[in-house]
Predict the structure of Putative RNA polymerase ECF-type sigma factor.
Amino acid sequence: MDEMSVTSAFEVDRPRLWSIAYRMTGRVHDAEDVLQAAWLKADAAERSSTPIASPTGWLSTVVSREAIDVLRRRQRRAEVSLDAGDTPVESVDGPETDYIHVESVGRALLVVLNRLTPEQRAAYVLHDMFDVPFATIADLLTVSTAAAKQLASRARRRVAPPNTLEHGADRSMVEAYLAASRDGDIEGLLAVLAPDVVRTSEPTLVPDGHQMIRGARSVAEQTRLFADRAQVSAIALIDGRPAVIVAPHGRLRAAMLFTIDAGRIAAIRVVGSATLDDSEIAPVEGPPGLSSDRTTQ
């Protein structure tokens, strides 16, 4: 039996427990709730003198169970990513902190994780990001070890970017567009936009009268008006092609799809998240250490 008490182990392991909770749930307030629930259980166990052979392992299991419960409740509620018309800031109370958490995981990766089932997300995050054995994951999910491996494998195929360099030049163009958008750099935008570029947007995403914009200057000027959205955007692959996703809190709200011709952006199509329900979305780069055949214990 470890000499360290459960509550002491909680404080020592808090950074790792937070990482598990946040990567599992993808939301700061949910991760905080998970840690609070875990601390209460740790305190109750200590008060009851319940023998715990490995406080660190026990706490990881408790946090994982709480996070899985959060994901399953969220799925049952079928909640939407954001209410229509919300300003895409990271957080009302602490935008900088929220931004740091999102970027620490990767905005595009969070979007993909949010499209997984709770069971797929749990299996992938716990095994591939935290090296939790599949036997432990199987117990958490009440499935067989083989089923836990299959869940992680399915998630891994969704998370891994396509193995292709076909659109490398297009990706560079889209990256330059996003960088200029974040900076409000009109000249930078004009450098990548074709003179006769056309930008179309779904009516629910932009003010009336701005669903179609023609010409590089006009598109650049309007893009600068939406610089706040660029701050919570990232490059992703949508159906294998480079695109920009708008994803405050890592939750997909919209995407910009590009047509590139003769080394310039000829058209931009802005669509809402519902339009992308049947599309395949992947990060442009896989998470560190990702392996498509990672199925061992």
